[in-house]
Design goal:
The chain has 137 residues and is of the alpha+beta class. The protein has 4 helices and 5 strands. The longest helix is centred in the N-terminal third of the chain and has 15 residues. The protein starts with a strand and ends with a helix.
Amino acid sequence: MSINQLVYVSQATRKMSPADLAEIQAKAKTNNAPLDVTGSLFYNGGWFLQVLEGPADTLDQLYNKIELDPRHKNSRVLYNEPAKYRTFPRWSMNMTNLNDRQADKYDELVEVLEAAQANRRIGAATPAVALLKLFAS
């Protein structure tokens, strides 16, 4: 089965607490596992950056549902391409709260999120490609 990777950025409509983020992660895990969707969600300073991996049609339907979630706004797809392999195969959904400054690869992840917000490149790469490369290594 072929898979796609979809990366999007969005702005939270309110400050997210650790409990809010845990609830989002729990719901995503429950919903994604039966859909064969994996990925990771990053949160920092009121912004989300999410990678979703799975069948293209499934990702399109899931993203359309995600866009309706009132907890965020200004959602924008940064990347939606076929992939040879999953970058996050172990997680139906991982969550990294960068606000706690405890995350592995913290500086690089903050740079990716800031670049995505500003719609700028990191060197020659788009923020989405930089993010995927960061975890492929």
